[in-house]
Design goal:
429 residues, alpha/beta, two-stranded antiparallel ribbon
């Protein structure tokens, strides 16, 4: 495998002009992807559902009695069958999802963990809340029955680091093992950090992505009380409607997405299929509000421009934007304004949250995979449930059906609570 890249410049998310211009672009090859989402398990199940624009939101018995009692759940997921009963009982659902997605990605990349150099393989996982459902369950036991009823497994199920740890154990990925938490920007942040590990020469392969399984009654009650969730209880399937004039909030989802990232020269040397390339990463902070985006969009714009500068891609070269597109009134209008300022009217914009809901810390990673597939298959997925575009949006939002098109470069936006922004640039193989 290759050593330190000739550029020797770590990825920081700082605009190129602020750290010295690059002499060449550093591309990372995406050689494998894995998906565990409300649209199904694996690439083809997701492609069939997301590109058809079929919503997965439905009434959720576990949320019965709450102000918002519907969500987007991962269907037909049997952790015991997929991971073995003994292993499954020691993991929170977030780790179930993450390990399965990582296995899928490694298999898709044509890699054999028994044969790779484990200390040169890293793992970076983004999450917002970690093993929230386990913590809530065990806390309930403590309150109801006393400390003697709390499971000793809580401390290997609840902490945010454990999904990355379980992936490393499962696949013998023995290099740097990291968790990043930038709220709903966590998945993209993880991909940016992974890219830095490859560019610096620390790793030859990195498994990067995001995972989340936080739809507990308490978490959902809090989001509902905050006014973040759609209240369209009479028709959950149409509740998540990014950029629509009648949008009223997001629908919560769960799942995981993982990507296998390698240096391009290494992927070529082993004859791997390169699905697409991650060519740039940018990050920023709004410094504005705990949950609301800066209405000027300044932080989001800085992150996008930093990613473009890192990729040596001009805004005019971007054909597609996979938008954060939460279906909340303020986010969508703010993000659309940023897209207009940076790109004008050219890019085909979509939000896949109309299908799978908002996967929180896993959202950016799932949307990164969807962006890779759009570039690879030359097909932009539609924005589900968009029936009447908000007149203030002013960008080319793909609706009704998928749009065939050549994509020279694509951008995946992610913005999180706390004003944390992370953006990647994806280019063709």
């Amino acid at each position: 495998m290759a050593g330190i890249p000739t550029t020797g410049v770590p990825v920081t998310g700082v605009p190129t002009s602020a750290r010295g211009a690059r002499t060449r672009r550093f591309d990372v090859a995406v050689t494998g992807v894995g998906l565990v989402t409300p649209a199904g398990l694996g690439v083809e199940a997701n492609f069939e559902t997301v590109w058809a624009g079929r919503s997965t939101a439905a009434a959720d018995p576990e949320l019965a009695g709450l102000p918002v009692d519907f969500a987007c759940r991962v269907p037909d997921f049997d952790a015991g069958a997929l991971l073995g009963r003994r292993s499954a009982v020691r993991m929170d659902p977030i780790s179930h999802f993450g390990v399965v997605a990582a296995r899928q990605a490694v298999e898709d990349a044509g890699l054999d963990p028994a044969a790779w150099d484990g200390p040169r393989v890293g793992v970076v996982v983004g999450t917002s809340l970690g093993g929230w459902s386990t913590v809530e369950r065990e806390h309930g036991k403590h309150l109801a029955d006393g400390p003697g009823f709390v499971s000793p497994l809580l401390m290997v199920m609840g902490p945010v680091n454990m999904t990355a740890g379980y992936i490393a154990m499962d696949l013998k990925a023995l290099g740097p093992n990291q968790v990043v938490s930038t709220a709903c920007a966590s998945g993209n942040t993880a991909i940016g950090y992974a890219r830095a590990l490859l560019e610096s020469g620390v790793c030859d392969i990195v498994l990067a992505g995001g995972a989340e399984a936080a739809m507990s009654p308490t978490a959902m009650a809090s989001l509902a009380k905050a006014g973040a969730l759609s209240t369209r209880r009479d028709d959950p399937a149409s509740a998540s409607r990014p950029f629509d004039a009648d949008r009223d909030g997001f629908v919560a989802g769960e799942g995981a997405a993982m990507l296998v990232l390698e240096r391009v020269e290494d992927a070529r040397a082993r004859g791997a299929r390169i699905r697409a390339r991650v060519s740039g990463f940018g990050a920023s902070a709004d410094g504005h509000h705990a949950s609301a985006p800066d209405p000027t969009g300044g932080g989001a714009e800085r992150a996008i421009r930093a990613a473009l500068a890192d990729a040596l891609v001009d805004a005019s070269e971007v054909d597609h934007v996979n938008a954060h597109g939460t279906s909340t009134p303020l986010n969508d209008i703010t993000e659309a304004g940023v897209i207009r300022r940076v790109f004008g009217e050219k890019p085909a914009v979509t939000s896949t949250k109309g299908v799978v809901g908002h996967l929180l810390g896993a959202a950016g990673a799932a949307e990164a995979v969807y962006t890779v597939l759009a570039v690879e298959r030359r097909l932009v997925p539609p924005t589900a449930n968009l029936s009447s575009l908000d007149p203030g949006i002013g960008v080319d939002v793909v609706a009704k059906e998928a749009r065939p098109m050549e994509i020279g470069a694509a951008v995946n936006d992610s913005f999180g609570f706390g004003g944390q922004n992370a953006v990647i640039v994806v280019t063709p193989a």
